[in-house]
Amino acid sequence: MLSWLQQPVNFREVLSDEAFEPAHAEYYSGPPGKPLKLLLQARTDFLSIWRATDYAEKVSQIRILGRQVVLVNSPELIRQVVVKRHENFERKSPQMRRALEYLLGDGLFISDGETWKQRRGLVADIVHMNRVPSFGPIMEKTAGELVERWAGIPEGQTLNVLHEMAGLTAEIISRSVFGNQLGEDSANAVTDSFTSYQSLIDSINLGYFIGFDEGLPVLRTPSLRRSVKRLHRIIDKVVEDHLAGRGDHNSMVELLIRRQQRSPELKLDVVALRNEAATIFMAGHETTAATLTWAWYLLSRAPWVERAVHAELDRVCGGRAPTIDDVPRLEWCKAVIEESLRLYPPVPILARQNKQADTIGDIDVAPGSLILIVPWLLHRTPSLFTAPHEFRPERFMGGKRPTPYSYIPFASGPRVCPGLHFGLTEAVLCLAILAQRFRVRVAETHKVEPMCRLTLRPRGGLPVTLERRAA
Ligand code: HEM
Predict the structure, then answer these.
(1) 362, 420 Cβ separation under 8 angstroms
(2) Which family does it belong to (predicted)?
(3) Which of the residues 82, 277, 392, 418 has the least number of beta carbons within 10 Å of its own beta carbon?
(4) Where are the alpha helices (DSSP H) in 284-402?
(5) Which of 400, 164, 434, 165 is nearest to 313 (CA)?
(6) Strand 450-452 with 463-468, pairing
(7) Tens digits of per-residue pLDDT, 69-101?
């Protein structure tokens, strides 16, 4: 509906012998001063609405149906929003809250105020960097199982590597959160329900733009209800099993329950425990799956980088499979993941709603406005990154780091992703384990189109073939 109003999106990809500019939408060139048209365009594809002039260090604003929308794209002002004035900007956008409330209830991802403060420490402790090594064996074993499965696939057969990576990271987070007892059917049901939930919700809450500060509730269609009910039933059963002492002792649900038993003032009942478990599950797998998928695409088109990755794996690991202890020495693998996160941040938009009136740069912001920080734009701003559209993992090597607050794939400030170390370690390790044994090939003729829903993925997935490397 209304698609006739939208500008068709053209994608650009440029490959030469030693340089690669991976796929991105051409700059928007629709007529200026048509915010409603822009909103409709954003509804289909949020990444196709940016003009060349938006890729600059600045703060700007537009009005959409009377609603003030402020775009913050300068490191210093981003620091102001996410750190210095965090309390005023900690609230997620009505769009995000409404889209996820049915699924996650008051889970950390969308809570704010006192609930967020109380729960943040709890969840952050559970996925803290000190705990990451204890999940190493799960990551190694699960990636190892995928190596076995891939080894049985005939060369030349096409796979959707987005689907493969989603299965891998869902299995890792499922075993980490719920323990090993979930069982294959329930694990698949959990993953399917999350996927179908995402596809059923709208990407823009029009209610907010027509005057409802809190947005409007998402329409709970029968299929949406079915996926949520199925998911809640499975997670509740895991929580109840753990409460009855029948759970896996190393799982994150077990850690949540132990924390509740030590601090009963947190008042975590079964529903609260479910909400936090579902939050960690949701936040902790799609993002990593998208990161790995983009990394395969980039490596496939830049064989000079792929060669460096393979040389590093041969040097560091010899013939044995990489383990979590190797991660600190896998500098190329880490740089490929960091560069993938720059070019294709899995969460390409951080949207907030300010509580009180405020000022950002020279813009006065009315209460309840929409504040957008767009890592997609920031990470491709030429004054912050040389040749910003090009794939150059070297920019993260030899101790080089981007300007503070110019590189924020995990957000920043008090609401920074608590799973940062888990996610980075998992992505580097899975890339290393799979790249040691396979080259993942995207057909030269395949047109890759980045698409933004809740996360940034290639439209229609990423069809690939596998080539074995000598073990
Ligand atoms: C490459 C992987 C990942 C990326 C790029 C990523 C990115 C992000 C970003 C950008 C946010 C903030 C969103 C916003 O402010 O609107 C976030 C929040 C969050 N992430 Fe991650 N994440 C990743 C992996 C993980 C993992 C593995 C876990 C858990 C094990 C996790 C758990 C969470 C949670 C619970 C929040 C909500 C935090 C809060 O609101 O206080 N993430 N993530």
Answers:
(1) no
(2) Belongs to the cytochrome P450 family.
(3) 392
(4) 286-301, 303-317, 331-343, 375-378
(5) 434
(6) unpaired
(7) 999 999 999 999 999 999 999 999 998 898 899
CA distance 266 to 346: 31
Residue located via tokens 């040691």: 436
User: Which segments in the chain show pLDDT lower than 50?
Assistant: 1-4
CATH of the domain at 362: 1.10.630.10
Nearest to 168 by CA among 374, 399, 433: 433
- CA-based max dimension of the chain: 63
Number of domains observed in the structure of the chain: 1
Measure the CA–CA gap between 258 and 255, rounded to whole angstroms.
Answer: 5
100/95 Cα distance (integer angstroms): 9
What spatial distance separates the first Cα and last Cα of the chain, rounded to whole Å? 52
Question: What's 92's DSSP letter?
Answer: B
Is 281 near ligand 1, meaning CB less than 6 Å away?
A: no
Contact 91, 355 (CB under 8 A): yes
**Ligand 1 mutation target, pool 172, 417, 452, 457, most atoms within 8 A of CB:** 417
Looking at residue 1, its pLDDT comes to 39
Three-state DSSP state, 217:
coil
pLDDT > 90 fraction of the chain, expressed in percent and rounded: 65
Contact 57, 383 (CB under 8 A): yes
- Residue 2 pLDDT: 43
Report yes or no: 295 and 340 within 8 Å, Cβ to Cβ: yes
Q: Is 120 in the pocket of ligand 1 (CB under 6 A)?
A: yes
Residue 227's H or E segment, with its range, is helix 222-243
Global pTM reads: 0.95
Q: Let me know if 43 is exposed, middle or buried by CB neighbors in 10 A (0-12, 13-18, 19+).
A: middle
What's the 392 CA to ligand 1 centre distance in angstroms? Answer: 25
The phi and psi torsions of 433 (rounded to 5 degrees) equal -65, -40
Give every CB contact of residue 385 below 8 A, 6+ residues apart in sequence.
Answer: 342, 379, 395, 402, 406
Residue matched to tokens 């080259």:
439
- Which atom of ligand 1 sits closest to the CA of residue 291? 1
Ligand 1 centre from 129 Cα, in Å?
Answer: 13
| Ligand 1 pocket, residue 279 CB under 6 Å | yes
Q: What is the pLDDT of residue 364?
A: 98
Q: Is the CB of 417 under 6 A from ligand 1?
A: yes
Q: Compute CA distances 98 → 41, 208, 249, 410, whole Å.
A: 21, 10, 34, 22
Residue with tokens 């500008």: 7
Map residue 428 onto helix, strand or coil: helix
Question: Alpha helices, DSSP H only, in 45-183?
Answer: 75-79, 86-89, 94-104, 113-126, 132-151, 161-178
- Nearest protein Cα to ligand 1, atom 41: 415
pLDDT at 149: 96
8 A C-beta contact, residue 426 and residue 139:
yes
